[in-house]
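About this split. The held-out portion is used to measure sequence recovery: a designer receives only the structure tokens and must propose an amino acid at every position. Recovery is the fraction of positions where the proposal matches the reference. Here is one held-out target exactly as it appears in the evaluation file.
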């Protein structure tokens, strides 16, 4: 485990390690080791520590998967596994000092192949900015290994800086650095017994969901809601199994199995919008004496669009602020009942030839108002005339009814 100061703690530890090493060279004034840009120069000997790249540790980055249960609950604290790539640059008052700094730093980094607790404690004293780090208690020690950069890679790095600032460069990598994410998984009981076995289990397959207007057609809200017919394969429960219908991931009641390929969901309470429906079959526990966990499989979901139903529409309007404009209230019967938590709009599109007027009226449902099947919408200074009406609840829009010939009957209100 490591907190968010882990990366800074690694930089501080490497800085302290190299500083201690070059202090014994007898260079006066003493060399300074500090993070900074590659072109950082000065009037005295110095060693630059540059974190120029961060990569994902390929081995440990997958060690924390999965971090959540099938229900989305946190089971393990997420953890990022990083490798840090550093460049050390050396600048002396002459070329001999530069090469001595390089040799002493390379020897020190080779002598200490990983960051020890003593080094981290010393770095914390020298750099109070990392005082809250817990890198010393990490599950994996941070190892320091040399890296070989090609001439092309070095050239690309230094091409961003003035040519006169180039100096000898030493590349090393430090890792893995494990940084914990936020969230508390709580207490998880350890596994006492591991059971392994095999049993035939045909997973359910849901091919489609049909309402009164057939498979794939939107389902119109009604009171009560119409039955839904689920078609597929291996939907019914076998002896000792249970079969459930899930709506947006939650099991619902009122399910009847016609046969293994056909389930009926009676009068489901479905809110307007896109509802994800799936079937879950669960088998008996592998060892009831040890665990009540039932092995289960869930079919791929099928999306069903549930649209609100628009009933009788009336308009009570009077002359607006100018001739030809109307102001008042449009009332509409809506199904299902709507309340303040719903986003309810009435969309009006003028049907007068040559008119492009469209209105979006929001329902006036104050906080605390009980769910209602009659919603009022205020209209102000709208052009007089007939309008086609569409009801929208939480983004789902009503669809006109059909006449005996299968043609839409457009609901119209006149302002």
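Reference sequence for scoring:
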């Amino acid at each position: 485990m490591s907190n968010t100061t882990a990366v800074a703690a690694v930089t501080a530890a490497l800085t302290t390690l190299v500083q201690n090493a070059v202090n014994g060279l007898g260079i006066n004034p003493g060399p300074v080791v500090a993070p900074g840009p590659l072109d950082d120069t000065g009037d005295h000997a110095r060693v630059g520590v540059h974190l120029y790249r961060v990569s994902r540790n390929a081995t440990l980055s997958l060690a924390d998967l999965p971090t959540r249960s099938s229900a989305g609950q946190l089971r393990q604290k997420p953890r990022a596994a990083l490798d840090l790539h550093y460049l050390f640059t050396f600048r002396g008052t002459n070329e001999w000092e530069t090469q001595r700094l390089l040799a002493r730093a390379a020897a020190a980094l080779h002598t200490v192949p990983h960051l020890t607790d003593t080094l981290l404690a010393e770095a914390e004293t020298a750099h109070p900015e990392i005082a809250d780090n817990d890198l010393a208690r990490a599950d994996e020690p941070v190892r320091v290994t040399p890296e070989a950069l090609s001439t092309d890679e070095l050239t690309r790095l230094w091409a961003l800086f003035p040519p006169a600032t180039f100096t000898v460069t030493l590349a090393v990598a430090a890792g893995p650095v494990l940084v914990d994410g936020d969230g508390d998984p709580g207490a998880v009981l350890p596994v006492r017994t591991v059971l392994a076995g095999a049993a035939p289990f045909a997973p359910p397959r849901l091919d489609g969901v049909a309402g009164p207007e057939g498979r794939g057609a939107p389902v119109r809200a009604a009171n009560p809601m119409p039955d839904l017919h689920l078609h597929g394969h291996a939907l019914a429960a076998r002896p000792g199994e249970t079969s459930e219908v899930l709506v947006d991931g939650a099991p619902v009641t009122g399910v009847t199995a016609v046969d293994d390929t056909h389930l009926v969901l009676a009068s489901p309470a479905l809110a307007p919008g896109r509802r994800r429906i799936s079937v879950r079959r669960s088998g008996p526990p592998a060892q009831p004496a040890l665990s009540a966990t039932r092995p289960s499989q869930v079919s791929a979901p099928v999306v069903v669009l549930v649209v609100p139903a628009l009933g009788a529409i009336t308009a009570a309007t009077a002359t607006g602020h100018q001739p030809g404009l109307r102001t008042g209230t449009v009332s509409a019967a809506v199904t299902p009942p709507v309340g303040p938590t719903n986003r309810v709009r009435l969309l009006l599109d003028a049907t007068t030839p040559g008119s492009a007027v469209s209105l979006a009226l929001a329902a006036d449902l104050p906080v605390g108002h009980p769910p209602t099947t009659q919603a009022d919408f205020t209209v102000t200074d709208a052009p007089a005339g007939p309008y086609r009406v569409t009801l929208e609840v939480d983004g789902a829009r009503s669809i006109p009814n059909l006449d005996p010939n299968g043609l839409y009957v457009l609901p119209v209100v006149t302002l």
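Annotator remark: The chain has a mean pLDDT of 86.
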